[in-house]
Design a protein that fits this description.
Length: 57
């Protein structure tokens, strides 16, 4: 359901201390957070009908 009024875009940032730049667990957590937020805020792509090449016609 769309919001009842237009909403501005919002920028989101991940910040961490430089000592965690090479920490594998922290890198995993940053990647997980990035993928999760991106999935939540990226609109779904509507499915495309199959092309003639895909249907074999």
């Amino acid at each position: 359901m769309p919001p009842p009024l237009p909403l501005p875009d919002v920028s989101l940032y991940l910040l961490w201390h430089q000592r965690y730049d090479n920490d594998l667990a922290h890198a995993w957590l940053r990647e997980l957070a990035t993928k999760t937020v991106r999935a939540l805020f990226t609109p779904p792509v509507p499915p495309q009908p199959p092309s003639a090449d895909q249907t074999g016609k």
